[in-house]
């Protein structure tokens, strides 16, 4: 399989539970969104889309990513939930893409090697889904890769991804197991406090 696979960094969330834009929080002197975008870029996808919110927050996020080779696209209604960001990312992809790999801006310990493992498994298997699971418990969480023939099924609404596609195609999915430490994300002030304590920031 040599058709292009693109990465998509979902960075349009409004961080309601956190109370401040999580994308712009700094860990080790680098914002979470920049850290996430650099990790996806280093995995050597054919291209990478960054989905950002409208307005001032979107301008601020674009500014911290301005020197990176990203294709920016705006999610016009991030208030409707993560589902809108998925669709905005898909709409920004060029024609002829074989698959899209979705990563979240608030998972700073997912590395380029982790993203590359998902990409390589897709190259090997051409599975309709390549899903990540974390640790011995096998917790399923992004990054996830979807083959292009599934793009039309991104009909979900609300604050989640296409869980119905994952259920429908789970028997055909390929899985990458990642370390449990990479699962940490930021949704609440308590999450951020724990994460910065663990990271020594």
From TrEMBL:
CDD domains: GT_2_like_f
Domain MobA-like NTP transferase: 7-169
Protein name per the record: Nucleotidyltransferase family protein
Organism of provenance: Deinococcus rubellus
InterPro entries listed in its UniProt record: MobA-like_NTP_Trfase, Nucleotide-diphossugar_trans
A Pfam family: NTP_transf_3
Membrane-crossing segments per the record: none
């Amino acid at each position: 399989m040599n058709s292009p696979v693109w990465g998509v960094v979902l960075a349009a969330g409004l961080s309601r539970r956190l109370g401040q834009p999580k994308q712009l929080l700094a860990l080790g002197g680098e914002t979470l969104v920049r850290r996430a975008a650099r990790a996806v870029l280093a995995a050597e996808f054919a291209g990478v889309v960054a989905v950002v919110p409208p307005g001032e927050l979107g301008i601020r996020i674009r500014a911290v990513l301005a020197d990176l080779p990203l294709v920016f696209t705006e999610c016009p209604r991030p208030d409707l939930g993560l589902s809108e960001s998925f669709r905005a990312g898909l709409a920004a992809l060029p024609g002829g893409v074989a698959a899209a790999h979705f990563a979240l801006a608030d998972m700073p310990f997912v590395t380029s090697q982790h993203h590359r493992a998902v990409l390589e498994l897709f190259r090997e298997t051409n599975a309709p889904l390549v899903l990540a699971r974390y640790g011995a418990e096998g917790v399923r969480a992004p990054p996830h890769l979807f083959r292009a023939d599934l793009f039309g099924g991104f009909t979900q609404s609300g604050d989640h991804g296409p869980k119905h596609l994952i259920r429908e195609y789970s028997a055909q999915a390929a899985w990458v197991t990642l370390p449990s430490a990479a699962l940490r994300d930021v949704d609440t002030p308590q999450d951020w406090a724990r994460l910065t304590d663990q990271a020594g920031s």
